[in-house]
Amino acid sequence: HGTEGEELAHRLGNWSAFAFAEQARGFRDIGGTPANDTLERRGRHALELAGDMGFPWLASVGHARLGLAAFWRGNWVDALAEFERAADLEGGGAVGGQSGRLLLIHAYLGHQDTALDLIDRARSQFPIVGRPASARSWNLAATAVEAFRLLGDTEGVAALYPTMSALADISGSVMRAWDFRLVATLQAMAAGCQGEWDAAEAHFADALRQSKALPMLREEPEAQRFFAQMLIDRDRPGDRARAEMLLETACESYTAFGMPQHAALTRELASTI
């Protein structure tokens, strides 16, 4: 269906629809076969189209895809540069949220002050539960959850648990649009930081099930990594042994998917057990 949508949008000259159709096809290709070069190829294609059509927003999409591919490959400094280009070209609109990509990559790079400053700037755009909100607003909040977790700000993560629950229950979203992070994984992070341990474990179980069912195979080691962190924090009898097993499996998957920096993060977390 993604291919049909691309062809129809191309004939009609509806480039917004084309981008969404291509994104849908990209989900299928990347979800079942997590090859980094697939996303990189789609990013370069978007840049070519942007040059042909003169649409800066499509160039923003292209740079965002190249940034995500570089991030997955472990080239995080290159990813930052691509996300900065994407943010410069994005413009306004309800869809987007390139500042979310920036704050997250800064969190992964350990740039705590910069990441927190970007979160503070974005905070006014976070959705208010019960009120209409744009995709940009939801994406910013969904990215802040992960950034806060990486920065060790458990209160910041916990405060966004109602927002992540609304994202799943009210909007019906299954994943964070720009990088395919499952909302169940984000709910689990937030529930764990709120001390809702059993709810967190249930959300992680959902994420692991969805990663196989969709499929979005790259999400499985991601959920396993954050699940292991939750188990270490909870520290019930047997939790550390479970965490160790999850991290070992996640590290194997990261290596197979060509994600060396994520594998390194996983080994670092395992060393704390």
Fold and architecture overview:
- With 273 residues, the chain is mainly alpha-helical.
- It is built from 15 helices and no strands.
- It has helices spanning 2-12, 15-32, 36-53, 56-73, 76-90, 98-108, 112-122, 135-151, 154-159, 161-169, 183-193, 197-213, 219-234, 239-256, 260-270.
Terminal Cα span:
46 Å
Q: Output the helix-strand order.
A: HHHHHHHHHHHHHHH
- Rounded Rg: 18 Å
Q: How many individual β-strands? A: 0
> Shape, please?
globular
Helix content, binned percent: over 70%
Q: What fraction of residues sit in β-strands?
A: under 5%
Label the structural class.
mainly alpha
What are the salient characteristics of this protein?
globular, single chain, 273 residues, mainly alpha, 76% helix
Task: Give a topology summary.
Layout: H1 2-12, H2 15-32, H3 36-53, H4 56-73, H5 76-90, H6 98-108, H7 112-122, H8 135-151, H9 154-159, H10 161-169, H11 183-193, H12 197-213, H13 219-234, H14 239-256, H15 260-270
Helix pairs in contact: 1-2, 2-3, 3-4, 4-5, 5-6, 6-7, 6-8, 7-8, 8-11, 10-11, 11-12, 11-13, 12-13, 13-14, 14-15
What is this structure, in a nutshell?
This protein has about 270 residues and is mostly helical.
